[in-house]
Structure formats: structure tokens, C-alpha cells
Write a structure and sequence with these properties.
alpha/beta, Rossmann fold, six-stranded mixed β-sheet, four-stranded antiparallel β-sheet
Length: 346
Amino acid sequence: MPAEAILEVRDLAKLYPLTQGIVFKRQVGSVRAVDTVSFDLARGETLGIVGESGCGKSTVAKTLVHLEEPTAGTIRYKGEDITRLSGKALKAVRRNIQMVFQDPYTSLNPRMTVGDIIGEPYEIHPEVAPKGDRRRKVQDLLDVVGLNPEYINRYPHQFSGGQRQRIGIARGLALNPEIIICDEPVSALDVSVQAQVINLMEKLQQEFDLSYVFIAHDLSVVRHISDRVAVMYLGRFAEIGTDTQIYEHPTHPYTQALLSAVPVPDPTARDHRERILLAGDVPSPANPPSGCRFRTRCWKAQPKCAAEVPLLAVPEWLRGEGPSAHPSACHFAAERGVVPAEEPES
């Protein structure tokens, strides 16, 4: 547990109602996009959240900055539950928790200059920068993210994808936040540009003492930047630990399957690595399986997996393993051997 948690999330849940009818709508169910997610974020730390598309990663990001109202749970920033805030109190918190969006092509207004885009937060929080000082601050931010300050009067279409994402990062830094929520910030960029943006974010983290929640589906990218990693499946965390624990000592079958698909540059190692192929598709979040949500695709599934929801806890056999011990939401979490599997129940 981090010594100083700047953000504490407990039992976070977000449900979207399913309705039928055009004129007289009635609720017929709900999509549980996020279901009882808990984690801490320490000052200066990067927590990576990784998982397949549709697992709820972006919904977590949106609830953290109040773009989506959580259905249940608490989000505490410096000990204060911000889920209950509104008006001026919420505005003050949002100044300290900013967001960098996934697509640099759609997150920037094409009708605004770069100077107006980066300086827009000062219109909402004028106390941060007086009007006469804003142009200089925007040019300083352009310089900080590696862009020419003379570009201040250019428009988004005059920049490449990587440069646009740098503009998005500069906008996120404008109010001197303590936390930045990064929702797949490099997934729309070329691999070479991804590395440049990741390196920039690491540099800025050191320079401004930032804490990141970094969301992505690329395991290699997450490992490069994260101190701790949470693996998410169908709205819940399957496993959470340091980057070494997750990548070198995975205990949840889903994590093991994901890691087995990561490309390996060494042909010898690649030929001797066991590839884990998952059966079936990801179940619908509107009708998830009982018990463990991964059990319908898991080769270790037992009757207990259908009857009981596994807790996100350190497996008993790992509790004496020191640095390798970390929480895993699996009844049969193990590295040593494979639990004989019965046919998974549907």
C-alpha cells in the first residue's frame, strides 16, 4: 500500500440502464460497465490499467474526472470524497485532476488556435493566470512539451498526430494539476511516435511531480511507464501489482493469457513459449457470468468459480513469497502447474 495516497478509489461502480420503447421507455436491465473497482494512487506514481476493449477502462477514467457520475463507491482526493461534490467545490477539484484524451484528432477544436486551446482552462480558472500573462504561459507550455512557442497561432490541422497529442498534454498541464488521467493517450499514434510521447510524459512526471492513471490496451506500453499495473476484465480488476509482479509473476489466468500473446523479439524464446488461446468471446456486460466473470473462457474453471465471486486478494500460497505476493481475483491463482479443468459452465 502506498505510504501517501493522493487518490483513493473504493468499490467504484458505474451502471448504464437498458431501456425499451420509443415513447414510453421502460428499463429492462443495465450494463455494469464498472463493478466494485478499488485502488490507491500515490503521489508521483503511475498506475497502469490494461485490458481488452470494452472492459471498462475508459469508464473508470471518466468517473475519476466526473465526466460520468459513478453509480456507487467513493473517490477520495486527499481524503475528501469528490463523488458528492458539485458547483464550485467540484470545479476546484477538477483543477487538480486533469485528463489527456485518446484521439488527438478529435479532442482538439479545429476552429481554435493552439494558443486558444491550451489557454482555454485559464478562462475557467482565471486565478491561475491573469489575462496579460496567458500568452507567455501558453508559449512556456509549448516549449515544455517540445513544440516551438512560435506555433501558438497555428491550428490543429497544421500538426502531426504526435504533435497534437503534445498539445493535449500541454492543455492538461495548464492548471498545474497533481493528477492526470491518461485515457489511451498513445493508441492512435505510430509506434515510434508512441515512444516519444511516453518519454515526454515520464520527463514531465519528474519535473512537475505528477501522478498518472495510465489506461491502455498495449501491455508493452503500460509496462514501460507504470509503477503498478491493474489488469481489468469485464468491469472488474483481475489482478493488481507492481510491474515486476504482473509481468514476471502473473497469477490470474487472464493475465497469463494476455502476456502469452505479447510479441517476443528473441526467436528462440518465442519458439519455446507456451501460447494460451482463450475459448469463446467476451461475455456481454449486460448479462455477465455468475461468480468469476472470466470462468467461461478459463481453462482452470471449476464449479466453485460459478458459485462464488473471487475476492481480489493475495493467494494463500503466495503470502510467504515476499516481493512476488500481490492480489489476484482467482480461486485457483497459481504459477506452479495448471489446475485440472472441467468444462466451463455457460
